[in-house]
Every structure is written in C-alpha cells, then in structure tokens.
Design goal:
This protein is an alpha/beta fold. Helix content is 26%, strand content 28%. The structure holds zinc ion (2 copies).
Length: 219
Amino acid sequence: MQKLEIRTFTSAGWDENAYLVRAEGQEHAVAIDPGGGTPELLVALEGDGLVLDAILLTHAHIDHVDGVARLARATGAPVYLHPADRGWYDQAGTQAHYFGVEVDAPPPPDRELEGDSVLELAGARLEVRHVPGHTLGHVVFYDAASGVAFVGDVVFQSSIGRTDLPGGSHSQLMESIRTRVLTLPDETVLYPGHGPPTTVGRERVGNPFLAPMYGGGFA
Ligand SMILES: [Zn+2]
Ligand SMILES: [Zn+2]
C-alpha cells in the first residue's frame, strides 16, 4: 500500500489544520487548506527542498484560505477551488474584516475542482468528491491507495460542520456525509479542517450526529 506523508500545521486562533502532503519519497508536494499555519508550512517545504505542485482548497472560508496569497506568491503553485465556493473566496478580505483581521487577497483560482474527478499530484491519486452542506462548493480529497481523506469542515471527530452560514444546509450536509464519506472503507483515516484525525468507522459508530442514523458495527 502506498503511503502518504502528511504534515499538519495548525493555526493559532481558529485551530485550522493546513496539510502538506506527498507520496513517500516524492520531492513534489501539495498543500491543502493553507490557513494561519502557512508560515510554518513554508519553512517545512523549503527545509525539505520540496516543490509545491498545487494549493488545494476544500472550501473557501477565511480560516482555510488566509495563507493562500502568501503560499502562492512564495511557490507559484496553482490554486484549485470548486467554482461554487468562489463567492466566499472572492470575499476573503470581507470575511477577515468581519473577524477584525487583515488578509492579503488570494489570487484568482487557476483550476476549477469538479466532483467525481481525479487529481494526479505529488505521487498521489486524489479523488475529488463534491460534498455540499457546509458550503456549496465544499469538496473532499480521497486517496484510496493510502486510505486517507482530507475532509475539511464536513465531519470532525465526534462532530460535523456548521450549516448556519450562507450556502449552508443541514440536510444537504447529512446527505453528503452519508453518500460521499461514510461510503468510504471504515478504516479510512479522515483528516479534518479542525481537530485530530479520526476514521470513517469511528465516526459511523461514535459520532453523536451520525451514529443515531447511520451507526452500527464496524463493517
Ligand atoms: Zn468552513
Ligand atoms: Zn474551518
């Protein structure tokens, strides 16, 4: 089984997880959701002499994109975003202002992410799954060979994403989780946008938002 090397850079304040990901032994990497931990991610990238091939965004809430401008400027890597989150992305400055912070406006996205597509990057084969509910353009990235999924703010250890912001829908989120996350093998390790990694099986059985409907024994 191919292994992914995953390094996590958690921001102060929002506790958002930015991930630096590559297949073991690869000199190319991708960054997922570069938020406030981006300066440390850049140090790791440069320290290891890695080439950044892509900046992948699960969605465009400010805590997941506030490092995009800096990372894109430093590496020249293209930014990938689902078009349905372009509204949030283009309002990064307004979002930041709401929280009383300043951010550099991220550059326009270079590529549009599409559900049911595959990205071959940094030695990994990442399936893109469209999972609306937390935002309209939220996606998860799933690497079947290593049994890993980056799930942004869709599902967390013992919790699920909020749906009270514009574009949010609880029923849509539950449907996305049911059809596009819980259908992954139980041993799949989920790397969320906030908090520690978990697994599909653990959340199916123990997540208080999911277990009453979808729970049951480990498959
Ligand atoms: Zn979010
Ligand atoms: Zn978040």
